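Two entries, shown back to back:
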Amino acid sequence: MSIRPVKRLVKAKPTLEGAGVHLRRAFGFGNTADFDPFLLLDDFRNDIPADYLAGFPWHPHRGIETVTYVLAGTVEHGDSMGNQGVIGPGDIQWMTAGRGIVHQEMPKGDSIGQMHGFQLWANLPSSLKMTAPRYQEVKSADIPLVTDDDGTQVRVVCGSFWGKKGPVDGVAADPTYLDVSVPPGKTKRSPSR
């Protein structure tokens, strides 16, 4: 795995998406060459239900993968292949749109109105653009958690890390997707993979 040097820092920008969801977009405004193969990264952190409840009603995707990771609240989802469910804190939805899929994602928030998560879009290589759509929903309990001696915790969603393999598989870019928590006041260096 190669590590790219940091070229610049980019501040996420507020934007409206879907049926009027207020979120912050880290990238996905125009030129995405610096982020290849990633196309978009949205942070949908919000504690005002009126700013997210309209959600993302039925819409199409093609030629990409979307990854939705929830930290607080819930997201009800469904797609044109008949998949449906609810993802909550620590759950992930990994959708390969391939030749095309229509889906919806409707954030509901938690008992005090908080909603927080991320959505990442990854471009499929040209050879896989017309692959059959595929959907993976993984619950938090099925994501391995590794704890280091210093208290650092890593949830391994996809790929392998510290001897654990994540439950999401068959992803074109062969990524490593981790949720890392470093205790306050600590610094952590870790070898890749």
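entry 2 starts here
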Amino acid sequence: MTSVTVRVPAKINLQLAVGPLRADGYHGLVTVFHAISLFDEVTVAAATADSVTVAGEGADHVPADGDNLALRAVRALREAIVARDGAAPDAGPDGRAGVAVSIRKRIPVAGGLAGGSADAAAALVACNDLWQAELSASELCEVAARVGSDVAFAVLGGTAVGRGRGEQLTSALVAPASYHWVLAFADGHLSTPAVYGTLDRLRGGEAVGEPELSADLMSALRAGDAPRLGAALSNDLQAPALAMFPALRKTLAAGREFGALGALVSGSGPTCFFLARDERHATDLAVALSSAGVCRTVATATGAAAGATVINR
């Protein structure tokens, strides 16, 4: 085996509750991750040295050097294998010790959908397979947590509750329902650290309690009740995202006007997502949003989707 290809999903946050700023510079979170059927594909091939190439949606904005999250994931996995086995992964008979990572993107960059984290998760799963390292999903998630806050969830997929920085995951107890989502991609980007900084300024030093999981949201998920789910969506980063990107107000308002069961900024934005009643409504809603001129482009997706999955060896 000389290469492995992995498909990995984007995420939306059905809830994102942000606590006070911690001493380590992060905020404590309680979030409900939901993987959706918008995928990147990552291929990892044996090579003389580590490298990365990126094509597709927003490729010009993705680092193609050692700062790339996928390459960080490769290094982190290699270090974990050395710590476990006392030696680096088998370089093979030709001595090729590196990997060439090829990323084909459909998940927008800096869109609040954790595309970079998804690519890192895909690289972990692909290298684990390529190197026949046989790390379990939980072991991969431990490595993922060292790479980035959202990486572990992209390994697992589905619907899960995240705590800490989002890396402490527990699977959510949910009904076997399929939800139909419409994504409105903005013409621009938002920096996650900048959005958190704006949130702190908007809070103005007021006392902020520790974040809590929404009972209404979890009850809706357990029941598979789409209208209740739409009403329970929440995101503490929506206000700062709207302050930094006011055009998103029109996008959210348009989605509600066209009958969305729920409308929310995804993560730190600027992507907005909408819950539709069913597949036909999702198609109609996507057409209406596109025609209204309130976003760069739209896509439909379903959830919950599987996490990073090997699709070709």
